Protein 1
Amino acid sequence: MADIVVVGSLNMDMVVQVPHIPQVGETILAKEIHYHGGGKGANQAIAAARLGSSVAMIGKVGQDKNGHALLDGLLKENIDITGIEFSEDMTGTAFINVSPDGNNNIVVYPGANNHVDIEQIRRNREIIENSKICVLQMEIPYEVVKYVATLCHEKGIKVVFNPAPATDEIDDDLLKKSHILIPNETELFILAGENKPSAEKLDQAIEKVYKRGVKNLIVTLGDKGSIYFDGQRKIYFESKKVEAVDSTAAGDSFVGALVTGLVEGKSMEESIEFATSAAALTVTKLGAQRSLPTRQEVEAFIKNYNK
Ligand code: RIB
């Protein structure tokens, strides 16, 4: 049985490299198109497995070419896929624009991911009950996320919740059942009930979200680093400076590395430092799963950084 279980999405990413992120009503020509394995759930599972964790995943794919390719990708990383089932619907697909400075925007058509249901969780509950950490995101139905968090809470399994994409349906009960909440800046402000992120209101948003019942809050801020807050200590972590090619899956890499650190017995601070390095390396390559670093790569990066 695996230490880490990820209950979440699998997508085929259709990535186009564009001269800039298009405006409303604008048509632009892309330079290149690539198909890469993605989906926040699968990315986080692979991120942890590539760093040496034992990982299982629960999710759904279509019975199509993309679904089989995504399963092959997980198998290559030694991830337990017995909890992944087939859906009649097509495999989830993400449409990603990447600009030359490495920024992106993403539209996801969930497809099979929308058919993960409570019955599937019941069929696979042993995988969850035998894990140490359960990782959740928001690309499968919300009622399933809630059900899994409640099951973990009852069984004493730590939930690491990445509220991506964030919506206002996320309630306090789910936040209270999460051991760690990891939003990015945009997601933090949505959870704080604010419509627009702003640097001036960051501390206020952190306090507001924390007061909803969060135990450990980590806000990822892209190239501005991250902030950890547990109600008493507020610690700022600087990002690692790298040449940005594509920021897709940097957050997923962070989550996968963080849970790897925690399962290995690293402290929260050590785990965040480790995750910061893994996320930085992810930004240096195009694509989601293909850009997630190995353990060796992260260790070499940490050794050579600042030299
Ligand atoms: O976090 C990046 C991921 O978001 C992409 O791989 C895409 O599939 C979407 O789920």
Note: The mean pLDDT is 97.
Protein 2
Amino acid sequence: MTATLIDGKAFAAGLRARVAEEVRALAARGVVPGLAVVLVGEDPASAVYVRNKAAQTVEAGMRSFQHRLPASTGQAELLALVATLNADPAVDGILVQLPLPAQIDPQAVIEAIAPEKDVDGFHPMNVGRLATGMAGLVPCTPLGASMLIDSVRPDVAGLEAVVIGRSSIVGKPMAQLLLQRSATVTIAHSRTRDLAAVCRRADVLVAAVGRPEMVRGDWIKPGAVVIDVGINRVPSPEGGEGRTRLVGDVAFAEAAAVAGAITPVPGGVGPMTIACLLANTLQAAKARRGI
Ligand code: NDP
């Protein structure tokens, strides 16, 4: 391996410590930021995320409010809860864990969250603010990914950046963040022709696809910064029946032999997401109080 390993786990720990320090300073002024997390249904992966979010919120010195609703919850009921949280002065951030059960329209829920409490950054107001370069709440995963890019390549102006994936949660906001930093940005997706050739141009390559090890070593420009957002569970070669392991969208060993810097999976972008959620909650708490 020739690439520098970008240690997202360590970076996230540092970010959480910085957030906790600011939270302590706010608490001394009588302000304790609060994050409300809403989970509808019993999806086991979502339950783990929600538990981790709550634990890290408390660890950072903030208040955590958890709302668990049954899978049968109707849209009106969920919207009513969101309205209550919007009006609650103790709540600075609201996160409704996705995916939601089929009877609920996720977009309606996202649009019901007060933009100043939208710590996921999914509300059209925050999407628009990011697109127009105004201050706002930025989606946690691309925000974390951009911090990791900054840590190894602080100036991306004029560089070629390729983002694979155009979701509203990762790909599009990631591209906006890179554009804000004056990179020349290409967004690739499932209809892109000759994806390998497009990727080979990239000085900064972000993979947010959800396909295990799709990006091969010979797709990487020598020296490039490679950010692997993908989290894919695949059968484990060692271990018995039913054993699985996590891999990214990038074939790590191959890519690490060519890249200048690369994030591992796990331990790369993943840990940054919750750390950025805490940072966004702190930002929302300060902004709401004019601090
Ligand atoms: P989506 O499924 O919403 O988007 C995937 C994107 O990849 C789409 O834009 C799709 O294109 C594109 N795509 C699919 N197949 C190909 C292909 N063969 N070639 C090129 N592009 C392709 O996923 P998300 O954006 O939500 O997540 C992406 C990955 O990131 C997942 O593995 C997810 O688990 C992970 N993730 C990790 C997070 C974390 O680290 N905390 C948080 C969020 C996500 P098209 O639009 O044309 O269909």
Note: The chain has two domains: 31-114, 140-270.
